[in-house]
Amino acid sequence: MKLSIPTTILAAALALGGSSFGGASQTATTSVAPGLTATSATGWICDRADSICGLDDAKMLSSPAKVDYDALYKATAEYKKIRDEKIDPNSSEGIQLRQRAVDRIRDKTDSIRSQKGYCSVWKSIRHQDGRAVPDITDQVKALL
């Protein structure tokens, strides 16, 4: 079980036989799979590294959306230049082009996120209860 600092203290207190800690209830963050974190208070299962824009803490999510990041990356002008001109993605020019593509995707995704009222956008996210997460890939792709 992976615990954050405040919940580590709570877990230690509970392990010693305490039923509460300072009168406040705490929610522990548990690891459900390598790289994925589930927060029992909200039920969102995600990896902070998959956050594109907006909130990146699963405990604070209310209305997230998701995108097919690979499809967005392949829709950028920078990716097409790397592919068409056979630029080594690990060369200095390739790295600069990839970073510009990432920046472009983040900016366009954030624009749609704020227009549609989503709290965040993720590469991969799901909920414990199986609810659908809106996919905004086509809307972002239209801006690229």
Would you list the SSEs in sequence order as H and E?
HEEEEEHHHEEH
Give the oligomeric state: single chain
Shape annotation: elongated
Largest sheet: 4 strands, antiparallel
Provide the spatial order of strands within the biggest beta sheet.
1-2-3-7
β-sheet strand percentage = 15-25%
Description:
- By secondary structure, this protein is an alpha+beta fold.
- It contains five helices and seven strands.
- The longest helix has 25 residues, at 92-116.
- It starts with a helix and ends with a helix.
Q: Would you spell out the secondary-structure blueprint of this structure?
A:
Blueprint: H1 5-15, E1 29-33, E2 36-39, E3 44-46, E4 51-54, E5 64-66, H2 69-74, H3 77-84, H4 92-116, E6 120-122, E7 125-127, H5 137-143
Parallel strand pairs: 5-6
Antiparallel strand pairs: 1-2, 2-3, 3-7, 4-6
In short:
The chain is of the alpha+beta class. Helices cover 40% and strands 17% of the residues.
What brief labels describe this structure?
disordered N terminus, 144 residues, 4-stranded antiparallel beta sheet, single chain
